[in-house]
Amino acid sequence: MHPNAHPRGGVALRARRDRDARLHRGGVTRPLKISAQLLAAAAVAGLLALLVWRVTHQPKPLKIGKPAPWFNLQRLDGNGKVNLKSLRGKAVVVNFWASWCGPCKTESAALERAWQKHRGDGVVVLGVDYHDVAGDARDFVRRHGITYPIVRDHDGLVGTQYDLTGVPETFFIDRRGRLVGAHLEGPIDKGDNAAKFERALEAALSS
After folding, report:
1. Can you give the residue range of the structural domain that contains 53?
2. Distance (Å, whole) CA 149 – CA 145
3. pLDDT tens profile 34-52
4. What is the pTM of this model?
């Protein structure tokens, strides 16, 4: 064998190894670049899909005279559910409240009085416990002697449907399931809300 054969072979092997290394590096880098591009495209597509979902699922603005947003919620006492559609033919006072809400404590007595006074006229006072702990809500109901039905909106989805700004907040639904009167922000027994409550309740009964 020529004395230079091995060195040349060594050079040839090194050249081949260098070439293989370049190919290897190229083979790793290219898929990584493609994967990064795919991930970026997927992220953009995901953001666009989220934007479309938000636009198409935005709650419609509440309008007086239009059907009230429908819901079917579990009763706080565990005795089944209350389906708003099942209350057609009655005037419904929907009151959003929570056990952690200070003004809700005094308001509950006014709602209880309205319930006892008007239930024979076809009025249903329906409390919607909003973003609350069930045990705390039950203690609140027991402590304040509430007898009108209470349902749970534990995840706040119904509150979103009603474009809730806080608690307490009260809405009025007539016998045909339509929103009537001005909804009340704050306790129904404070300031101008007391008179507004009576007017809205009368509108719900007479529609």
Report:
1. 28-58
2. 12
3. 677 777 666 666 666 545 4
4. 0.72
